[in-house]
Amino acid sequence: MSLDSSQEFDLSSLKFDPGERTSILNYHPNHRDIIRRAYLLNGPCQPRLAVQEFPQTNISGSMHHFYHEWFDDIYHDWMECSVSKDTVYCLYCYLFKDHNTNQGGRETFSTIGFKSWNKKSGLDKHIDLPNSIHNQSKKKCQDLLRQRRSIQFAFERQSNQLKHGYYMLLSALVDVVRLLVSQGFAFRGHDESKSSLSRGNFLEILSWYAKNCDKIHNYVLKHALLNDQMTSPMSQKDIVSACKIETVKAILEELNGDYFALLVDESFYVSRKEKMSIVFRYIDRMEFVMERLIDIVHVEDTSASSLKGAIFNLLAQQSLSPSSVHGQCYDGASNMQGEINGLKMLIRQE
């Protein structure tokens, strides 16, 4: 069922394990390009597991399995692997392939999944013809990203003075966002009009910052171009998302593919939605024990299967393997104890 176009789409609800996500055609047409960009910017799901960690399949009396070295081959930009389904997919074909096409094998790399591990030639056949569905889908993905790059190109053609102004404006906005996020303060005000005496933390702090810092005074709020102030709620969310991405990237670099423990806390928010915070506990290069919040995710319910799906989706998004989880700790309501025990067992089995 398509999503309601009147609602803002929550990108955090996307499934990054290719074996778990729904068809792109199930989303509302107004949301599809937003979803496509999110998947393209995140990149294909490519868990780097040891050989023995990939499932074995008996094919004609011999055991075969997927090799993560294929990620480094000519398939590196599109190949995705679902360890849970033991299949590989094509990111480009998932995002843009026309399901009404008559070309043979059209569902293999977008919906069903490829697992003929003894016939690597099937991967080559998928991309060989210039007019193949794969290459048509790849071009559409490139065109979609090029729309954003054309904006960057237009920016690069501006004068150095104008580019400096944009840089100072963005730097000020990022400084304010980082302050509010680090302190856990709210961003928005109930009345953000110019006549309001209290426009919310974001606008008020930005205004104070501009008054007390000469180097940004001439570039923000009323001094910025009317259509380039970048203070809208959407712009605020974009900057927060960018801060989150860079923070998680730094945490994963510190983790360096090593083992870690999961610390999970579930709670019922005032918005009447179940939320689950996921923390990684690990030892860094200096042999200090670190605990880092990775994400807060929405879950449909508190069943073991739902919680497992949310955790595994997060791991897939970061190209991490469940086999790297060497400890589990959960905190939730007492009536969830049975589900938590079941969740621990499900993760151990992986």
Summary?
The chain is of the alpha+beta class. It has helices at residues 29-42, 91-96, 108-112, 121-127, 133-156, 160-183, 201-212, 214-217, 233-255, 304-317, 337-349, and strands at residues 57-59, 62-64, 79-82, 87-90, 260-268, 274-283, 289-299, 325-331.
- Give the overall average pLDDT: 83
Helix proportion range? 40-55%
Major sheet details: 4 strands, mixed
The best one-word shape is globular
Number of strands: 8
The low-confidence runs, each spanning 5 or more residues with pLDDT under 50, are: 1-6
Note the total helix count. Answer: 11
Task: Give the terminus-to-terminus CA distance.
Answer: 31 Å
Structural class: alpha+beta
H/E element string? HEEEEHHHHHHHHEEEHEH
What percentage of the residues does DSSP assign to strands (E)? 5-15%
Total domains: 3
- Give the strand line-up of the largest sheet: 7-6-5-8
Instruction: Tell me the radius of gyration.
Output: 23 Å
Oligomer: single chain
Protein name: TTF-type domain-containing protein
InterPro entries: DUF4371 (IPR025398), Znf_TTF (IPR006580)
